[in-house]
Amino acid sequence: MKLRCGNRTLDLSSTKVMGVLNTTPDSFSDGGKFATLDAAILRAETMVSQGAAIIDVGGESTRPGAGAVTLQQELDRVIPVVERMSHSIDVCISVDSSSPEVMLAAKKAGAHLLNDVRALQREGALDTAREMSLPVCLMHMQGEPSNMQKNPAYAGVLDDVYVFLAKRIQACNQVGIENDQILIDPGFGFGKTAQHNYQLLAKLERFKTLGVPTLVGMSRKSMIGDALGGAGVDDRVMGSVAAAVIAAMNGAHIVRVHDVKETVQALEIVKATKAWQ
Ligand code: 7PM
User: Fold this and answer.
1) Is the CB of 190 inside a 6 Å radius of any atom of ligand 1?
2) For domain 2-274, is the CATH number 3.20.20.20?
3) Which of 104, 110, 149, 196 is the most core-located residue (most Cβ within 10 A)?
4) How many angstroms is it from 62 CA to the middle of ligand 1?
5) pLDDT for residue 24
């Protein structure tokens, strides 16, 4: 499988790493503009030097219980980074947003991939994605970040997530976004208990029949901490790398991670092993 990312093509025959670039809560438009912008670019350069094939730039804090950010806050956090990266780093740039305005501005600033945790369900998002003709990752989320972890419940998490993603792919096809422009993501941590998350990880291969590449993001999430007796977010590197390896062995094409160097090394071992399967 391949993924067009701007004027480059990502070869997804071996699992690729997407590095998470968290923009700080204070936007770049404030006094700290250059300090935090320089820091963001330095971080992106480091992740690329460690082997990240994609850098994911997000401005909306989607952590459970997070309050909503304003559109302007999101623009202020994301656009300056994408703009600077597109002129200074040779890498596939993805923008983690559900807002059509942010998507459009990000493409103008040089982004190559849309990563929408709401699977283009916001008003205008589907049409904007079609107009921009950028590849898009459609992710499953139950509820909203402010309430999604209150009491996640499914008739059957695997079937429910699968059917949701199949319907969103169909919605994209109906407006002319073809499957070679689409990725899917089960949305680990987005309205799921630890058990739901591990069922999705164990049976990740099921999503192959959707016919598009799979992206997963488990890095440093509570599903890792839960399995490690409540390990804090800074003590989840090994667990996150183990989850990335399992996902890659179970067919994931892209893993979205904070710890790029460690994950890239682990995926080399996966690649060496898969060569003989
Ligand atoms: C809870 C903890 C919820 C951490 C969300 C997060 C994903 C994403 C994020 C993902 C895709 C975080 C994430 N997670 N995009 N954006 N898949 N496609 O890393 O799993 O903070 S936000």
Assistant:
1) yes
2) yes
3) 196
4) 7
5) 59
